[in-house]
Amino acid sequence: MENRIDIQELEPNAYKHMLALENYLQNSQLTKTHLELIKIRASQINGCAFCINMHTSSALKQGETNQRIFLLNAWKETELFTQEEKVILSMTEEITLIHKNGLSDETYKQAETFFDKNYIAQIIMAVVTINAWNRIAISGRKSI
């Protein structure tokens, strides 16, 4: 597949603001594990090969296991993920698939049992941001 456009080159100001969101997330309270799980799972749902490749590589460098990455798309069927991580993965899926009713009350209430409101807001911003990156990469046909 041939690249279409390079948003970073054509619209550097817009790209700069996307990077500001990314920098915010890197300096937020989100653990690196939580952040990478969000990025990988949303990218799997959206079919963004570029982002899946980037974030699985990053997760491995941070100590994530191959087994958990291999089973991430089947996280509901395994005990490899903590209850906190399962709530984050539910949030990621529901927000990414917003056309299927969005973030449910049930999932939000589960999140409140593990996280304070600021952490929940940061999870939501992480999901929103990776979905935007996925759309930029896919629309521009960014290749690995």
The top level CATH class name of the domain at 32-69 and 78-139: Mainly Alpha
Residue stretches low in confidence (pLDDT < 50, at least 5 long) are none
Estimate the helix proportion, in percent.
Answer: 55-70%
Number of strands: 0
Estimated structural class:
mainly alpha
Rg for CA atoms: 15 Å
How many helical elements?
8
Q: How much of the sequence is in beta strands?
A: under 5%
- Identify the CATH homologous superfamily of the domain at 32-69 and 78-139: AhpD-like
Order of helices and strands: HHHHHHHH
CATH architecture of the domain at 32-69 and 78-139: Up-down Bundle
Mean of the pLDDT scores? 95
For the termini, the CA-CA separation is 10 Å
How would a textbook summarize the main sheet?
Answer: none
The CATH topology of the domain at 32-69 and 78-139: AhpD-like
Give the overall silhouette. Answer: globular
